[in-house]
Design a protein that fits this description.
The chain is an alpha/beta fold and about 190 residues long. The chain contains nine helices and six strands, in the order H-E-H-E-H-H-E-H-E-H-E-H-E-H-H. The strands form two sheets. A four-stranded parallel beta sheet has the order 5-4-3-6, sandwiched between helices. Strands 1-2 form a two-stranded antiparallel ribbon. Helix 5 links the parallel strand 3 and strand 4. Helix 8 crosses helix 9.
Length: about 190
């Protein structure tokens, strides 16, 4: 287990996220701090260019691809935030990308992905169905699949949040991390 964590630490240290992401500030949540009689801070990932931490993992993964992988293009599946991260990363790196999004994806997320120049394939009612379709397309066209959370480089990119938190001069009693797929939690936990 120590070897796995050390491998993630190295990947986090070598992450290329700051080519597109910002070091997001910690903001004290005054009302919540008062209510809980403690000092509560929120990591402001909503201030990223795509308004989500997902740009970190997507960019780190895509920036690590070989020249031949970049030439072939990438594919991802997402209902929104990961899609925007992949689209922005591909725009910055001049890589063609296709994002499979469920038909239930919010219109504002669809419009954002389109503005960033990604091709959108609408498929399925949910992310699970979109993931299956993205995998099929990936195999058919030999695209690199950029998973939203289950990839070492995605996890490492998101782990840069943990690194930033420990660079601030704050003594933590606890760090709470939201969990969806687990990539954010895995990355932050590896660093912490």
């Amino acid at each position: 287990m120590k070897k796995v964590i050390k491998n993630y630490i190295t990947k986090i240290e070598n992450s290329k996220v700051y080519e597109v992401a910002n070091i997001s500030p910690l903001s004290k949540a005054d009302y919540l701090s008062k209510e809980l009689a403690n000092s509560i801070y929120l990591k402001r990932e909503d201030l990223q260019p795509t308004h989500s931490f997902k740009i970190r993992g997507a960019y780190n993964k895509i920036s690590q691809l070989s020249a031949s992988q970049k030439k072939l293009g990438v594919i991802a599946a997402s209902a929104g935030n990961h899609a925007q991260g992949v689209a922005l990363a591909c725009k910055k790196l001049n890589i063609k990308c296709n994002i499979v999004m469920p038909v239930t994806a919010p219109e504002n997320k669809l419009n954002s992905v389109k503005r960033l120049g990604a091709k959108i394939t609408l498929h399925g009612e949910n992310l699970a169905e979109a993931l299956v379709k993205a995998d099929e397309i990936s195999k058919k066209y030999n695209y690199t699949f950029v998973h939203p959370f289950d990839d070492p480089y995605t996890i490492a990119g998101q782990g840069t949040i943990g690194k930033e938190n420990l660079q601030d001069d704050i003594k933590y009693d606890a760090i709470f991390v939201p969990v969806g797929g687990g990539g954010l939690l895995a990355g932050i936990s590896a660093w912490i």
